[in-house]
Every structure is written in C-alpha cells, then in structure tokens.
Amino acid sequence: MSTLSGIAKLFLGKPMHPVGSDGRMALSDHLRELRARVLKVALTLVLAVAVSLFFFDQLFDLVLGPYNSAREKLGDEVTFPSTSGAGGGLLLYLKLCGFAALVATSPVWLYQIWAFILPGLHAHERKWTRVFAAIAGPLFLGGILLGYLTLPKGLEILIGFNPEGIVNIVEFSEYLQFFTRTLLVFGIAFEIPVFVVLLNLAGVVSGASLGKHRPWVVIGIFIFAAIATPSADPFTMTFMAVPMVLLFFVAEIIARFNDRRRAKRKINAGLSPDEASPL
After folding, report:
1. 12, 108, 190, 240: which could form a disulfide with 225 (CB 3.0–4.6 Å)?
2. What is the dihedral angle through the alpha carbons of 155, 156, 159, 162, rounded to the nearest 10 degrees?
3. Among 273, 235, 248, 256, which Cα is nearest to 191's?
4. pLDDT digits (tens, 9 = 90+) for 99-142
5. CA nearest 136: which of 110, 118, 113, 116?
6. CB of 98 closer than 8 Å to CB of 49
7. What's the pLDDT tens digit per position in 150-177?
8. pTM
9. Residues 6+ positions from 127 with CB-CB distance below 8 Å
10. Cα–Cα distances in Å, from 96 out to 103, 137, 153, 174, 235?
C-alpha cells in the first residue's frame, strides 16, 4: 500500500519549481513538472469521457444539429447520414465523447499549459496566471460556440455543390472529424490575442510594434481564416476573421496600456534629456 501511495505521490504530487543556485530549474525538474501536468490533464480527460458517456444521446443530437439544419434547407432526399463497418457505432460513441471531454476540460488543460510556462516569467508577471485562466477558457468556448452557429451555413454551401440527382451520403465519422476540426479551429483562433498579450507581458512584442504592423496582421488573419476553415466558404471565413480582428485590436490596446504602465515604473521616467538620472 505504501508503494502505491509513493507511486501516486511521485506522479500526481503537487508540481514544484525547485531552482538551483543560479536561479534556474534543472532539466530533470522540468521533465518531472511536465509529467505531473500531463498526467493531471490525462486523468481529467478520462473522467470527462466517462461522464459524457451518460449524456451520449444529448451530445449526439447537439453534434448532428448543424447537419440536420442544413439538411432541412436542402431537402431530406439530397443527403442523409450513415455509419460504416461493424465497429462504426462503437467508434461513434468514443469519438463523440472524447471530443466533448476535450471541450469541457479546456479551462483545465489551458491552465496547465500556462502553469508550466509560469516559472520562466518574472515574479511580478506571475500574477497574470489567474487572469489567463479566467480569460483563455471562456474565449476558447466562445470560439467553439461561434463555429457551431456558423457550421449549418457552411454545410449547406458545401453539400449544395452536389449535382442534382446525386444523393450525398455523409459518413458520421467523417462528419464528426469535420465538425471537430471546424470548432477547434474557431476555438484556437480566439486564443491568439491572449498569447499576443502574454508575449507583450514577457517583453517580446510591444504595443507600438503591433500598431505598426496592424494592416499586415489583419491581412494575415483573413488569410489564416481562409486556410483554416474546413468548409472554405466566404461566410464561415468572415465569421472567424472579424472577431479575430476585433480581439487583436483589444490585445493591441492592452499591450499599449501595459507599455505605458511599464515605462512609468522605470527609474528615469519623466526626466528630461538634460536632467540627471537618480543613478
């Protein structure tokens, strides 16, 4: 029993950040930290999958909802869903519940990513941990929600290319991959402004630099949206790109505010070129 408890403590114990005399963590400490956090995320995902199995019917109706909406507008005779293979039904259960668990636990694994990066930041920057966890999770879920709302129109456009007289058979596993990819792309895209702010807090980019390259960033966002959206239709692309541009503007404002706050804290802030520094 003591052996089992020792193993559990080794793998699941509270992550520590031991540092050496030079103020840096040893490689073994980094690996131990990474192992503990990966295991916590894995256990959380397993528990979430187990819970989602009890709500499979509701999840199935939720996932198939965008397809049914597109099917109603196109006509029931144009397309219908299907599964293939003897294990198609089982794979449907596992894939659907796995995706639901990934979305539901997003605040947990996003926080674990940030907490692993945390030791590399200065002490005064670590206070942003809670802010990151509070903002990144809702933004990710907000992106997924927007992707879900735009998915019926994207499906309608894609299936609408089917020539008249030919029935479109949608294999559910392929549809679930398309569904998952679309929603994850939307969710991850909404995280980009958060990481821009984090880079600013770490001193990698400045608000002035973001403003200088703003036109190219906006163009890059629309190119990214055109490539990243699986449906590749202008409707879905625009619905992804416009919120990303607005979130980038918010990130730039926050970065500029943080730069001004940081400049005021410098020891020679407010001094004229002819005035002697306190040093």
Report:
1. 240
2. -160
3. 248
4. 889 888 877 887 788 777 766 666 655 666 667 767 877 888 88
5. 110
6. yes
7. 888 888 888 888 887 788 888 888 888 8
8. 0.66
9. none
10. 11, 21, 22, 12, 26
